[in-house]
Amino acid sequence: MRQKHMLSPTLRSVAEAEMMSHQLLLKAGFIRQLAAGIYSFLPLGFKVLHKVETIVREEMDKIGAQEVLLPSLHPSELWEETGRKKSYGPELMQLQDRHGREFVLGPTHEEVITDLLRDEVNSYKKLPISLYQIQSKFRDERRPRSGLLRGREFMMKDAYSFHANRASLDEQYALFYQAYQNIFSRLGLDFRAVEADSGAMGGTDTHEFMALSEAGEDTVAMCLSCEYASNIEMAKVMHDGGQRTQIEVPVLTEIETKGQKTIAEVASFLDIQAEQVVKSLLFIADDTPVLVLIRGDHDINEVKIKNLLGASVIELAEESQVIAVCGAPSGYLGPVGLKKQVKVIADHAVADMNDMVVGANKKDYHLRHVQHTRDFEIDEVADVRNIQTGDTCPSCGGQIQFSRGIEIGHVFKLGTRYSEVMSGTILDENGKTQPYIMGCYGIGISRAVASIVEQHHDENGIIWPASVAPYAIHLIAVNMKNETQASVAEEVYQMLQKEGIEVLFDDRPERAGVKFKDGDLFGIPLRITVGSKAGEGIIEYKNRRSGVGDALHLQDLSKALPDLMKELM
Amino acid sequence: MRQKHMLSPTLRSVAEAEMMSHQLLLKAGFIRQLAAGIYSFLPLGFKVLHKVETIVREEMDKIGAQEVLLPSLHPSELWEETGRKKSYGPELMQLQDRHGREFVLGPTHEEVITDLLRDEVNSYKKLPISLYQIQSKFRDERRPRSGLLRGREFMMKDAYSFHANRASLDEQYALFYQAYQNIFSRLGLDFRAVEADSGAMGGTDTHEFMALSEAGEDTVAMCLSCEYASNIEMAKVMHDGGQRTQIEVPVLTEIETKGQKTIAEVASFLDIQAEQVVKSLLFIADDTPVLVLIRGDHDINEVKIKNLLGASVIELAEESQVIAVCGAPSGYLGPVGLKKQVKVIADHAVADMNDMVVGANKKDYHLRHVQHTRDFEIDEVADVRNIQTGDTCPSCGGQIQFSRGIEIGHVFKLGTRYSEVMSGTILDENGKTQPYIMGCYGIGISRAVASIVEQHHDENGIIWPASVAPYAIHLIAVNMKNETQASVAEEVYQMLQKEGIEVLFDDRPERAGVKFKDGDLFGIPLRITVGSKAGEGIIEYKNRRSGVGDALHLQDLSKALPDLMKELM
């Protein structure tokens, strides 16, 4: 492609963009904003998008998923059937047609695909079936920002699988999981498959694929030594089983701590560490109050408490409930001398503590030298806190660290969530009617493009992995007005094209500085420069990532190419 | 692909579908309707769609058009700028986002692309630029019908070119025109490029590409001998220049023709041919009345009259105007004895007539034996009628016939229609500000799929051209319960895949009749059947289009394949 007539308007600065990917994709002329969260892909940006799509398509086809294309306009009735017309909230874009019929602009296609299958597939013999599509999706984000990382119209790959039994779903899930590993590896992404909470279906039934990046909105707990990764809510905290050392604990003492409510305030006031203070939190689990104790330096994990109690709803108690149960306002709660009998759950770390500080259940007072069993009873010891940096990896015993992540994919066992309410059923082997068992599998295609940029750039611009680079080689003629340079560059251009290499030829009548700056922004993996030594048949190459380059005689280029290209992989 | 788990639900009858393409695509399980005019592409249908897209993409890339992807959500303000928010009418689908901002769902992208370019390209040096995209479009048809031929959400390729001068536009237009010829030829379509009216830009500045088919909504006038084709409005009627033969014409006579108003009624009442009667029509051209005369067996062409008069608006006169000018109600108009002086335009064929019948400008009366010049004056003789079957081809002198056509593409010189109102300008070579000169070029991708089916089917199903067939070979194992057949079929399947051939393997435990019926519906070009002679290593092949087939020894298949595949081209 000749750059002279390519629409690739570069910018030297972009005021409004915060994220690096947003900045660089704008600067390099890969995208332009049409409205908040709504972007046009310009030629270079489209090329990358298309390459990502192609990799996704190849890996989907490889596991036998069948490509379809479902409409963006969904009759509202389908979303009413599943209750999501209400529950999806204001992110759901809606419209009426000329006859006043209501439609939803598809943000996802569970309703439409279940509707399709329920009409067409009614026997276990035809299952499993896996279908996917690559398509623009619509989600009316309240504050779209971050460029392609969170848009209102964006490109998704969504897939759905249908099964007659759980084992078949498990098998397909494993195939998708592996395909996702392949896809994100081929995209050159540093990512982790993260265990995530899937509600009713249990622990290993959903994974989020996270591109590791400071630009991410999610926090991932991951192991420094092994592949373990989990979102914080899900990560199990390892307990070494060590009992507390039986030391001599002074007798319990009440002390005035006027106005000192937070752990930090209390610790500072008493000149002790936060880990010597116990945080007491009163929850209402399905109408029953429960007091949960964690160490002052730990964070509570409500999901774990909810799962521990098997509760369907769990909420922090309101102030009136706190006073009714504990006799004091929050900030002064503790397990000693409660007004009402209430179940006390302690985190493992609390059970290991000696000589703790707790609230006195009396405004402006705490208790020092508290020792459980001696001064109060714990009803249940359990893992109820969030994992922290430095904790032990539940998989290998290594050390946990935190990282920010961008969710670029998820695989999810839906079960019968949709098939039941929509009467999507089959006759099973015994002639019995059963709802389909379903899985769903998403990849944010345009978000993946931005994630690649977040991970692959330097201060001068983007550095595309070869697999998704818009072109493999950026051929720059330094001075097109110099006839020798222009004709040597033309010769190289023709030669590279003959070799079947995707090459962008900067044939613009621009100054060298502009050309190199634009070239760095574009991030094409290999640059070939035709400059002042063109007359002697000398050209130069440079690897965008490593910066490694050299001069080369024109007649050696063809021979050198395979090695140069290999280095880009 | 193994058919057992493919989503390809065939139907034996479809009540609601009228068009053959609609019927067959439903029956063969290529598409399903989600809502009126809104379709899902199932795996086989998607494969065809994708192949059509790929052909379009290849030909667009070949002429240097750059692929982009513009949003479907357009801020309404852009459509207000061009006045199309109103003028587009109720086919424009509209919605509001959560903040009450108004959006249009793009049916076409002139506004968005002009908005993009006006921000980015401001010098003639960067032009010409041609951009295209392949994308779902939205148009709220009042009565969506005919399946993919006229939907509300459909796949389009739209392209836009930007130029600094007219010559550059002409050049690009020619490239697109040729690319369209290539595309539709590769799709296996019988089509014509038809001259169409482009309003202000003149005669050869817009072409519609019509797939010839009885299912079409348009009528095309085309030559039996040459490539000439035109929509009826545009086709020039050739006049041999022959003067009327000077025969003795009896004296003009008024006769009562009570209640006989139409040409047919008058001709029948007087027992003469329609071509002996003159049809007189009063038009109001920009407030000025004009009487137009055409032969009774001809159809009036308002576009020609409008162009002839250089009028901006032309309409048939209302009854009150007719009476004011002619003194009689319509049905009895004529050029003799008009109440008011009015310009009289006659079609060439009228100027050639002798002894005509015209209205008497008196209710229930006509005049016989009328001779122009003797009885009334013609102010201007011109081509003001529609071309007809049997007329002379304006290009080669051959014979015109009519055909129905489906519009599958158009190329259009927009000129400055959008750039002027949207201030899309460049500095030209002289440093002067000029609006872009634009072209636009569309292809209905999903409509092309349906058009192919309209042209390629028989009573048993679709017959895909090899270029867009979902698979090249349909391998049918007649009886999968027979182990020999199953294993021979499996062997053939593996072999064909190894050869890189796209093959669909019917491995379903269905009866032979079902398999062959489904196979005919699918329309895959070559069938290979593994049946009862599998034990002897004998299989069969059959060309879906020609019906030609034969038995073949397994070990000869590999050698025979190249020839068999060549026949499918």
UniProtKB/TrEMBL annotation, chains A, B:
GO terms for biological process: prolyl-tRNA aminoacylation. SUPFAM superfamilies: Class II aaRS ABD-related, Class II aaRS and biotin synthetases, YbaK/ProRS associated domain. It comes from the Bacteria. It is found in: Cytoplasm. Residues 37-465 form the Aminoacyl-transfer RNA synthetases class-II family profile domain. Its EC number is 6.1.1.15. Keywords: Aminoacyl-tRNA synthetase, ATP-binding, Cytoplasm, Ligase, Nucleotide-binding, Protein biosynthesis. GO terms for cellular component: cytosol. Its main location: cytoplasm. It catalyses: tRNA(Pro) + L-proline + ATP = L-prolyl-tRNA(Pro) + AMP + diphosphate. The keyword Protein biosynthesis applies. One of its GO terms (molecular function) is catalytic activity, acting on a protein. The keyword Phosphoprotein does not apply. InterPro entries: aa-tRNA-synt_IIb, aa-tRNA-synth_II, aa-tRNA-synth_II/BPL/LPL, Anticodon-bd, Anticodon-bd_dom_sf, Pro-tRNA-ligase_IIa, Pro-tRNA-synth_IIa_bac-type, Pro-tRNA-Synthase_IIa_type1. Consists of three domains: the N-terminal catalytic domain, the editing domain and the C-terminal anticodon-binding domain. PANTHER family: MITOCHONDRIAL RIBOSOME PROTEIN L39/PROLYL-TRNA LIGASE FAMILY MEMBER, PROLINE--TRNA LIGASE. Homodimer. Belongs to the class-II aminoacyl-tRNA synthetase family. ProS type 1 subfamily. Catalyzes the attachment of proline to tRNA(Pro) in a two-step reaction: proline is first activated by ATP to form Pro-AMP and then transferred to the acceptor end of tRNA(Pro). As ProRS can inadvertently accommodate and process non-cognate amino acids such as alanine and cysteine, to avoid such errors it has two additional distinct editing activities against alanine. One activity is designated as 'pretransfer' editing and involves the tRNA(Pro)-independent hydrolysis of activated Ala-AMP. This is Proline--tRNA ligase. The lineage of its organism: Bacteria, Bacillati, Bacillota, Bacilli, Bacillales. The gene is proS.
